[in-house]
Design a protein that fits this description.
The chain is an alpha/beta fold. It is built from 6 helices and 6 strands, in the order βαβααβαβαββα. Helix 1 links the parallel strand 1 and strand 2.
């Protein structure tokens, strides 16, 4: 394998979200090819699935996961948990054929307004990922607290502590992707 492919998933739909900026920083440090997922898809609805099948955006996401060598997920913290957008995407992917997450190296990060940096969202995401049986990296944990003050105008992290932890996490994810 030459350069591994990293799929970045931001749990926020906002174009300039801090979690989107964080996955782009992770991709910059990963040293591989990067694809950014699009979570714009309908809410999971069993009737919709029965009538029309899995929506194209959900099927595309499942294929991106299956084809990636590693995945980085950045989740905002909404009411002490992962975002509904991210949970919805996980639910739709679970309805696709195959098991795209199985044994896939996955790192979880977060950026949030609060002092905990999204730690509760990361925990809830880990719980939501367990049924899919990916290889979830355990650390170092990267949770950017007070995210509004941690990125410059170019979308780059400015805090050396976060940069160091993210660099270490991306090195671990890269190594896991190459094994």
């Amino acid at each position: 394998m030459s350069k591994p492919t990293l799929l970045g998933i931001s749990g926020s739909l906002r174009k300039d979200s801090f979690n989107r900026k964080l996955i782009r920083e992770a991709a910059r440090l990963f040293d591989g090819d990067f694809i950014e997922a699009d979570l714009q898809m309908p809410l999971y609805d069993g009737d919709l699935e029965s009538d029309s099948g899995v929506p194209v955006p959900a099927q595309t996401l499942a294929e991106q996961i299956a084809n990636a060598d590693a995945v980085i997920i950045s989740t905002p913290e909404y009411n002490q948990a992962l975002s509904g957008v991210l949970k919805n995407a996980l639910d739709w992917v679970s309805r696709t054929d195959g098991a795209p997450w199985k044994d896939k190296p996955v790192a979880i990060i977060s950026a949030a307004a609060g002092r905990a940096g999204g730690a509760r969202a990361q925990y809830s995401l880990r719980l939501a990922m367990n049924p899919f049986r990916p290889r979830l990296l355990t650390g170092p944990e990267v949770g950017v607290a007070g995210a509004h003050a941690e990125f410059n105008d170019d979308g780059l992290l400015t805090n050396e502590h976060y940069i160091k932890a993210l660099t270490e996490l991306m090195a671990a994810l890269h190594a896991d992707a190459k094994r």
